[in-house]
Amino acid sequence: MSQEKLYYPDKELFKDAAINSMERYHALMQEAREDYEGFWARFAKEKIDWFKPFTKVLNEENAPFYKWFEDGELNVAYQCVDRHLATRKNKAAIIFEGDNGDQRVLTYRELAYEVNKTANLFKNRFGVKKGDRVVLYMPMIPEAAIAMLACAKIGAIHSVVFGGFSADALRDRIVDAQAKLVVTADGAFRKGKPYMLKPVVDKALEEGCECVEAVCIVERNGEDIRWVEGRDYAYYELLKEQSHRCECETMGAEDPLFLLYTSGSTGKPKGVQHSQAGYILWAQMTMEWVFDIKENDTFWCTADVGWITGHTYIVYGPLAAGATTVMFEGVPTYPDAGRCWRMVEEYQINQFYTAPTAIRMLHKLGADEPEKYDLSSLRILGTVGEPIDPAAWQWYHEKVGGGRCSVVDTYWQTETGGHMISPLPGATPVKPACATLPLPGIMAEVIEEDGTPTPVGEKGFMCITKPWPSMIRTIWGDPDRFVKSYFGDCKKDGKPVYFTGDGAMTDELGYITITGRTDDVINVSGHRLGTAEIESAIKKHPNVAAVAVVGKPHDIKGESIFAYVVLKEDNGVADEVETLKEINEVIKKEIGAIALCDDIAFVPDLPKTRSGKVMRRILRSLVKGEAITQDTSTLEDPGVVEKIAEILKCKG
Ligand code: PRX
After folding, report:
1. Among 188, 418, 493, 520, which has the highest number of CB atoms less than 10 A from its own CB?
2. What residue spans define the domains of the chain?
3. Ligand 1 pocket test: which of 160, 162, 260, 411 has the largest number of ligand atoms within 8 Å of its C-beta?
4. Cβ of residue 325 lying under 6 Å from some atom of ligand 1
């Protein structure tokens, strides 16, 4: 492994980086090890504009419900917008490019006005108060960021629901959060055509959402929509009446900033709750450390605001750092596979951050496209969301980055708030497709369940063994599930530690490679999906008696969804292709198009233990065509494994 080529950062390009050598990295790590609270207190004082300074750093009394900087007071919208007005009022805060190529630039002053007017609208017109929940079901337009910041300004807790989720999924999230207000748009544009969001909200609100008092609709695509009298309001109509001045609500460091629902291995999605101070601190610090953000940089993260990457690295991180952030409504392959590179050239992007899925797709559809554009502004290329394969990494590094740029493979999760393991662009010698080292202050370790370090080259549990400021605080409304989900599996020195759900491996340099989820979570195109959620959707098909879904390796998506289906009535009439279509209709309704199955197989039964537990590992091996090494003697019917293998062989 040590024979593998390491890529060293361009020292000249990163001479002014906050962490520009490994000596500096090790010194920071040492500082954190010697005085953990002192380390974090130093940065919290330096980076955050506190309304009232904190006197306590970390409170571990009620572990794992950790508290950071708990008696400090601040406002995240102030940190991201207002405080920049003194020095950056005419600097571009958000550069927006629409699907059709339309552009809009908001300076920090303009952003402040829009945020204030929106905050006043939410407060005065819709009665939103500190602690109330607001669901945002929005396309990728500046109003999404404005609405998030408006919530932060008045202390409301936003929950952004990704626009690809169905009405049922949206309803579940609205009800779980007991949201008072829903903010949406008529729709937006994708691949040159309008698509709709408002009808999905209408459908979601048909039943069980009594908590919702109003729906506020931003006009984007101008398509006809249904208006419900007394419930639906046009955003821009009402905005006119609002003042552009708005006082910041004073927030406690530990008050919730937002909820973001994500999939777990069991049950319904979890409302991951983030804090104010700890979250914004790390969002800003990682912008500086991992993306080396500089005053004149233009930063582009291609994620959707509906995911954590969009929260931390389109909105909160870049704006807290006073940077210029690009927001893009469209898709990377429309009108052609050169779209992103054209935008990099046009806006002179300095940091480009995307998912391996997009890189694989752009590589496949236009390997030589990057050559057609001037990409010399780029300094850092980031990836996130899933393991990147060496081939995609090489193409990204050479063709997009011209071999010059630092590639940062950033490992983190919805729950971690910001990056946990990543190369530092000016310091870390990089091994392709490897997240490398924990960031300073992050005690990420690959361990066994009892906390002993996993030997080099072997798979262990990816844990964070000390609390960190931007960590998840709880699962909304379900503190027990929070403890069980994250602190139930691994211990160190007898104390439960945070387990990510991922497996990982270290090499002799101490570099960490993420090997993927160890639980029943599938990662399709960087989207995290729980098998339990997909299975419970499929079970609603009238002819499905039992089902198990697994991830199947896929060239572009990373993983695709494969379902083993036991039919209620297997009379030989049911057809796999037809049933797959029907199953996908059910999934589309229950979850959304992001969770569609690629393939299914009818099987006589699932491999179950005598206690009824489905042996998913066997099913995963079978779909990959791997030899079954697991002990099948404990199965209720060991013969079923061979039968399934035979069925898959016939399918080809
Ligand atoms: O399995 C890991 C994978 O994505 C999961 C987190 O998904 P989500 O909460 O949706 O957040 C995605 C964006 C931060 C992780 O548990 N993952 C994320 N980044 C990487 C990764 N796997 C390998 N390498 C990465 N860089």
Report:
1. 418
2. 35-330, 521-651
3. 411
4. no
Q: Which two tokens stand for residue 639?
A: 């013969």
* The predicted structure's pLDDT at residue 232: 98
* CATH hierarchy code of domain 521-651: 3.30.300.30
pLDDT (tens digit per residue) in 21-35: 999 999 999 999 999
What average pLDDT does this structure show over 68-92? Answer: 98
Task: Write the CA distances from 125 to 129, 154, 182, 296, 580, integer angstroms.
Answer: 11, 13, 13, 38, 47
Identify the DSSP state of 480. Answer: H
Say whether pLDDT at 3 is over 70: no
Concatenated DSSP letters of 493-553: TTEEEEEEEEEEEE-TT--EEEEEESSSEEEETTEEEEHHHHHHHHTTSTTEEEEEEEEEE
Contact 272, 260 (CB under 8 A): yes
> Tell me: the pLDDT tens digits for 592-608?
999 999 999 999 999 99
Q: Ligand 1 centre and the CA of 602: distance in Å?
A: 31
Quick one: pLDDT at residue 188?
98
pLDDT category at 1 given cuts 50, 70, 90 is very low
Rounded Cα distance between 217 and 32, Å, is 47
Nearest to 189 by CA among 219, 159, 210: 219
Cα angle 391, 395, 398; round to 5: 135
What's the CA-to-centroid distance between 240 and ligand 1, angstroms?
41
Tokens of 430: 């990089």
Residue 270 and residue 478 in contact, taking contact as beta carbons nearer than 8 Å: yes
Helix, strand, coil in percent for the chain, rounding step 5: 30, 25, 40
For ligand 1, atom 22: residue with the closest CA: 386
| CB 447 within 8 Å of CB 460 | yes
Cα distance between the two ends of the chain: 35
Answer yes or no: same fold for 35-330 and 521-651: no
434 close to ligand 1 (CB < 6 Angstrom): no
Ligand 1 near 122 CB (within 6 A):
no
pLDDT value of position 334: 97
Return the ligand 1 atom nearest residue 516 CA: 1
DSSP secondary-structure letter at 164? Answer: T
Q: Whole-prediction pTM value?
A: 0.96
Kindly report, residue by residue over 450-464, the tens digit of the pLDDT: 999 999 999 999 999
Closest atom of ligand 1 to CA, residue 517: 1
Minimum CA distance residue for ligand 1 atom 25: 411
Distance in angstroms (rounded) separating the CA atoms of residues 254 and 277: 7
The rounded distance, in Å, linking the Cα atoms of 367 and 61 is 54
The Å distance, Cα 102 to ligand 1 centre, comes to 32
Q: Does residue 446 contact residue 470 with C-beta atoms inside 8 Å?
A: no
Average pLDDT for residues 505-521, to the nearest whole number? Answer: 94
Q: What is the pLDDT of residue 573?
A: 73
Query: Checking DSSP bridges between strand 232-234 and strand 214-218, what pairing results, if any?
Result: parallel
Query: How close is the Cα of 516 to the center of ligand 1, in Å?
Result: 8
* CA-CA-CA-CA dihedral for 93, 94, 95, 99, to nearest 10: 180
What pLDDT digit, counting tens, does each position of 239-270 carry? 999 999 999 999 999 999 999 999 887 778 89
- Shortest CA distance to 305 belongs to which of 137, 93, 523, 104? 137
313: its two tokens: 């690295």
